[in-house]
Amino acid sequence: GESVGLHLPTLSVQEGDNSIINCAYSNSASDYFIWYKQESGKGPQFIIDIRSNMDKRQGQRVTVLLNKTVKHLSLQIAATQPGDSAVYFCAETLPIQGAQKLVFGQGTRLTINP
Amino acid sequence: DGGITQSPKYLFRKEGQNVTLSCEQNLNHDAMYWYRQDPGQGLRLIYYSQIVNDFQKGDIAEGYSVSREKKESFPLTVTSAQKNPTAFYLCASKRVGQGTYEQYFGPGTRLTVT
């Protein structure tokens, strides 16, 4: 079936360190992946995306890696800051009746320790 | 100032009552979506609409209804048939077109039914 899951539900890192959040997906038909950040009581915010024809994409302090062979996605955040504390979701897009559906993982809660 | 608004932020209802959650967007997006989020969980798709006057059931549509009479509005009604209506409800919108995947989310409505 279709599912997107995360290896670790919680992650704590020291401020200034790098963090890596992992995600496993099961549907090889997905051609686009997004990482969202969700702060408490708010809607998800787009962080970075990657298409299935790429294996790496970099943004400001963030890098997404895609390994299609093992259906694995990761989000690397460099030099973490207190504002990075949030829940991070990966999502894959799947076609549904001429549209696109986002399938979300359960999320990883990232806590930045001072 | 473009974006998606959801109101109210918090909503309380008694069991057995229908309740309608508002979602408005001024991004001129054709597609709109409703998701439900339970504590510690990812987002699950309730309903989506690709165009005015048309909408489709998502993965967990039972006990919910929607309408799409205007492009900018996609209200969700939580009916008394929904067994566990207490949750955080998120609305999203997206451009429709080749290569457009990112969904923009509203701030959410937290519904509590007692």
Description of the molecule:
The complex is a heterodimer of chains A (114) and B (114). Chain A is mainly β and 114 residues long. Chain A is 0% helix and 58% strand. Chain A is globular, with a radius of gyration of 14 Å. With 114 residues, chain B is mainly beta. Chain B is globular, with a radius of gyration of 13 Å. The termini of chain B are far apart. The interface between A and B is medium-sized, with 25 and 26 residues.
H/I helix tally of chain A: 0
Total strands of chain A: the figure is 11
Listing every helix as H and every strand as E from the N terminus to the C terminus, the arrangement of chain B reads EEEEEEEEEEE
Query: DSSP strand (E) fraction of chain A?
Result: over 45%
Largest interface: A-B, 25 and 26 residues
Parts with pLDDT < 50 across at least 5 consecutive residues of chain B:
none
Terminal Cα span of chain B: 36 Å
Largest sheet of chain B: 7 strands, mixed
Q: Please give the oligomerization state of what you see.
A: heterodimer
Fraction in helix of chain B: under 10%
- Pairing-aware structural class of the strands and helices of chain A? mainly beta
Radius of gyration of chain A: 14 Å
- Look at the helices and sheets of chain B and give the structural class: mainly beta
Shape of chain A: globular
Strand coverage percent of chain B: over 45%
Please estimate the helix content of chain A.
under 10%
Please work out how many helical segments of chain B DSSP would assign.
Answer: 0
Number of strands of chain B: 11
Q: What is the helix/strand order of chain A?
A: EEEEEEEEEEE
Name the features.
heterodimer; A: 114 residues; mainly beta; six-stranded mixed β-sheet; five-stranded antiparallel β-sheet; 0% helix; 58% strand; globular; B: 114 residues; seven-stranded mixed β-sheet; four-stranded antiparallel β-sheet; 11 strands; 49% strand
